[in-house]
Amino acid sequence: MRVGIGYDVHTLAIERKLILGGVQLPFDKGLSGHSDADVLTHAIMDALLGAAALEDIGTQFPPGKPEYKDISSLILLDKVKKLLGSKGLKINNIDAVIVAEQPKIAPFIDDMRRRLSQTLGITIERIMVKATTTDGLGFIGKGQGIAAYAIASLD
To answer: What does pTM read for this prediction?
Structure first.
């Protein structure tokens, strides 16, 4: 078994869609970034790449490249899945947590798990997504950004 950890954070910005786990959440701000800035999917990709001892998403998909501008992170996640498959690695499970003060994440978790499981070709029971706040502390608590952590195991 191989295990990897991933982390991502982006600032909130106006005139952007908020995408988490491939799901658009109704909110007046979105995450700033070169792609769709989906911190949950980015953290999961880095956890998977780490478990495979491969370079991180910034190296795999450089943010300065035009082909990644506003790209869906689920497309990049599919590329990571194929890369793992080419190395003979299979995803065992993923555990992730989103850290955000707003919006409420819980109503969208099942949709996120479903989108991620479809993209990765694994059962929804192998993916857990949770959410927490910082109780008003730090830049996340002040509503300036959203972060995500993920752990993945491969066989």
So the answer is: 0.97
